[in-house]
Structures are given as structure tokens and as C-alpha cells.
UniProtKB/TrEMBL annotation:
GO terms for molecular function: L-ascorbic acid binding; metal ion binding; oxidoreductase activity. This is Fe2OG dioxygenase domain-containing protein. PANTHER family: OXOGLUTARATE/IRON-DEPENDENT DIOXYGENASE (PTHR47991). Residues 195-295 form the Fe2OG dioxygenase domain. Belongs to the iron/ascorbate-dependent oxidoreductase family. InterPro entries: DIOX_N, IPNS-like_FE2OG_OXY, IPNS-like_sf, Oxoglu/Fe-dep_dioxygenase_dom, Plant_2OG-oxidoreductases. It comes from Phaseolus vulgaris (Kidney bean).
């Protein structure tokens, strides 16, 4: 195992705290009051639900509005079989039910590692943890990475592999629709998107004895173009256009699509990379399987030239995935957002 940071010798994962049956959350998970989840105001709106079996102009318009205003929507009839989803969730559940020692074999805080098990430690340099454990692995092209994925449970690779491939197909379709909604060609950057990277994060949020004091994952935006998120119950929240937290309701069979930093940059700021977080709950474990799509590790990308003109000057610098990883490996994400370092003409 690699050297661990101060305090990590007494490392306990959220899952193992849950197994121990703790009745209060340890101090290191307690957030300052201003950052705790607050009871929701009545919500006037939630991200739209787009039926992908009904591809139409009005769908594309709905996507455009959602991407401009909140950077998030849900999709139904997305073409991924329920059996594929169920199997992916089954192996996720089995993985997090394994003895902690088994999970720890993959533990690493090095964000450059293609496969790693972790807790909030690496994302919270200020030592405020969050109530989540995860396994993260590079996933595309699958043949390059699958041999590094967890081998326990024994069907993890096969079941997760089916899900990963299905989401990769879906993301191609979603990218085409998003490009169309921006007025770009549907096949814009087709090669880069097919040859891009996919990282899968399987998140486990155990039931929490004091859900009002902590979070499952701290506010952040994803670095990639889009994220496709499967949740087993509600918990995901996004910042709406008035800067209020808006829950993303759990919809049976739906997948959540979130725009990441690369999409905000590519759209030259027309579309929003959505800031989101996950809350935890007192009674039941929650899983999310999060597929993060981006351009290849060293492929620089910037605003689409078609979206830059005199009225809309180029507003972001070019960047690549590796620069983002370098940024988060030496910065506390709570202290700054990578996207902000890319903005040109800052006010
Ligand atoms: O579990 C969730 O709802 C959010 C997870 C997330 O934002 C992430 O893994 O990047
Ligand atoms: Fe995220």
C-alpha cells in the first residue's frame, strides 16, 4: 500500500463506519453550518425529462434550454436494458459488501491512477471528509483497462463491462443531440468523441446517523464533456440559475445527464457546467454509477470556432484532461474551481 497522509493511519471508510453502527458522525465529517444541506424550499422546477424514443425538434429545444439554464436533464427510453443496469448495481453492491481489506487493496489517493478505491480524502485537502466511498476506473477503450478493474466479485468485470459499453453508445447519441442544439453539425468532433476517455465512478453512500451535518460529495463540477449518472434513490442536488440547491428527483429507469467543464468551454459559455453535490440519508444506502466522458487525456480542446464571433469573443483557454488532473492533485477543490482558471476576460 502507498504511503498515507497524516491521519490516514486511523483511516476508516464511511462504509466501515456504517458497519460499526456508529450513532453519530465523527468530527472530521462535520461541515460548517453554512455548507450543510438545508431543508429544501418548495421547488418550482426540476430538470426536464427527455424521452429519447421521441427524437424531435421540441426535444432538441428542451435540451438547449436545460443546457443553457442549468446544465442538467434526465433521459428515459435511453436504450440501456434494465437487466444491464440491474447487473451493474448488483456487482456494485457486492463490491461494497466485501471486507474493507479487500477494497483497500485498490486504495490510492493518486488521481492519476487508472483504477482506485477511495474515500473523500483525496478531494478534501482541508480534511473535511464526506460520507462516501468509491471505486473509480478508466473504462474506454475497455480492452485497455478491464484487466485492472476489481476482480472481486468475480463477475464485476463482465457485468460492469456491459454497462460501460452501453453508456458509451448512449453518450455518442447525447453528444450529437447537444451539438445539434448548439447549432453545430451532429457529427462535430466525432473522432475525438469516439476516441475520448470514459471514467466510471461507482459511489456508495451508506446510511448516515446524522445526515444533516455532512454531505456525500462536496459541491463540484465534472471536468468532462458530459456525465451520465445512474442513481438508486434521490440525493443528487444541482445549483439552479438562482444559485439555490435543486434536488434531482429519482425517476425510475431514468439516467441523469450533466454537462461538465469541457462542454461549457466548447460552447464558449452558452452552456453551463453544472455545480452539484450529493446529500446522504438516514435510512438507506445509496449508490450512484457515474460515467464521466471527456476528450482523450492529452487532447487539448477549446471553444468551437463556429461559436466565436465579434459579439461572442472566445471566453476560455484551451485545456486537456491531464491539466485538470494535475490541478486537482495539488489543490483543494473546495478552494477553487478548475473552470475558473480557464476563463478569459474575467470581469
Ligand atoms: O452520487 C451522486 O449523485 C453524485 C456523484 C458525483 O457527482 C461524481 O461522482 O462526480
Ligand atoms: Fe460529479
Amino acid at each position: 500500500m502507498e504511503p498515507q497522509r497524516n491521519g490516514a493511519s486511523s483511516f476508516t471508510s464511511a462504509v466501515s463506519l456504517d458497519q460499526l453502527g456508529v450513532s453519530s458522525v465523527p468530527h472530521r465529517y462535520v461541515l460548517p453550518p453554512s455548507q450543510r444541506p438545508s431543508p429544501h424550499l418548495p421547488v418550482s422546477t426540476t430538470p426536464p425529462i427527455i424521452d429519447l424514443s421521441l427524437l424531435s425538434r421540441s426535444n432538441i429545444n428542451e435540451i438547449r434550454i436545460a443546457c443553457m439554464e442549468i446544465g442538467c436533464f434526465q433521459v428515459i427510453n435511453h436504450g440501456i436494458d434494465q437487466s444491464v443496469i440491474d447487473e451493474a448495481l448488483e456487482v456494485s453492491t457486492e463490491f461494497f459488501n466485501l471486507p474493507n481489506d479487500e477494497q483497500m487493496r485498490l486504495f490510492s489517493e493518486d488521481v492519476h491512477k487508472p483504477v482506485r478505491y477511495g474515500t473523500s480524502l483525496n478531494q478534501a485537502r482541508d480534511e473535511v471528509y464526506c460520507w462516501r466511498d468509491f471505486i473509480k476506473h478508466y473504462s474506454h477503450p475497455i480492452s485497455d483497462w478491464i484487466h485492472m478493474w476489481p476482480s472481486n466479485p468475480s463477475n464485476y468485470r463482465e457485468s460492469m463491462g456491459k454497462y460501460v459499453k452501453a453508456v458509451q453508445i448512449l453518450q455518442n447519441q447525447l453528444m450529437e443531440m447537444i451539438f445539434e442544439s448548439l447549432g453545430l453539425d451532429r457529427s462535430y468532433l466525432h473522432e475525438e468523441i469516439n476516441g475520448g476517455s470514459q471514467t466510471l465512478a461507482v459511489n456508495c453512500y451508506p446510511a448516515c446517523p446524522e445526515p444533516g451535518l455532512t454531505l456525500g460529495i462536496h459541491p463540484h463540477s465534472d471536468y468532462g464533456s458530459i456525465t451520465v449518472l445512474l442513481q438508486t434513490r434521490s440525493g443528487l442536488e444541482i445549483k439552479d440559475k438562482n444559485n439555490n440547491w435543486m434536488p434531482v428527483p429519482f425517476v425510475e429507469g431514468a439516467l441523469v445527464v450533466q454537462l461538465g467543464d469541457q462542454m461549457e468551454v466548447m460552447s464558449n459559455g452558452q452552456y453551463k457546467s453544472v455545480i452539484h453535490r450529493a446529500t446522504v440519508n438516514g435510512d438507506e444506502k445509496r449508490f450512484s454509477i457515474v460515467s464521466l466522458h471527456s476528450f482523450a487525456m492529452d487532447r487539448k480542446m477549446g471553444p468551437a470556432l463556429e461559436l466565436v464571433d465579434e459579439q461572442h469573443p472566445k471566453s476560455y483557454k484551451e485545456f486537456c484532461f491531464r491539466e485538470f488532473l494535475d490541478f486537482i492533485s495539488c489543490n483543494d477543490i473546495a478552494k477553487g474551481r478548475f473552470l475558473d482558471t480557464l476563463k478569459l476576460n474575467k470581469p
